[in-house]
Amino acid sequence: GHIPSSDFIPDPSYTSAIDPPFRPPDIVFPLVWTPLYALMGYSSYLAYKASAAPGSFTLYTLTLVLNFAFLPIYSAMGQRLLGLIDMVVLDGLVIYLICAWGGGSNTLSKEAWGLVPYITWLVFATYLSVAYCWLNGWRGQGRWKMQNGVKQKVG
Question: Which of 9, 24, 88, 138 is surrounded by the fewest CB atoms within 10 Å?
Fold first, then answer.
């Protein structure tokens, strides 16, 4: 996520945007991400202790890089489509990582189970991102506008 500050000024295209259905209030995001990052770290520790395949830690690091890259790409740079590509690749890699750390049986290992809340949130975040773009335009310049404090469809 981003680091809030008193001088943060939201992008006007964001503040005037139509929110997708089921979008939680802003406060929910740091409340969710904090325990998710802790759980991800604990899962990687368990995988390390279990001597998971060395390549899986490269994959884990790549998921962290993609995760941290999403918000600057999607929001700060306004590259919505590139951000969505980042998110979809991230979703796929986390699913692959769950399988890699899964233990190869019909039941998941503890380290794989630790990533299940993460992929669940990522899939929800992917939905929110796609829905936001669908409602507001893929380049941040929406099909909607604010007029007299009311969001109205353009065209």
Answer: 9
In sequence order, what are the beta bridge partners of 67?
none
pLDDT in tens, 19-37: 889 999 989 999 999 999 9
Output the pTM of the full model. Answer: 0.79
CB 11 within 8 A of CB 140: yes
Backbone Cα Rg of the chain = 18
Euclidean distance between CA atoms 67 and 136, whole angstroms: 23
- Tokens (6 digits) for 30: 């740091």
Q: How distant, in Å, are the alpha carbons of 2, 10, 63, 84 from that of 123? A: 19, 24, 14, 11
Query: Both tokens of residue 91?
Result: 């979703």
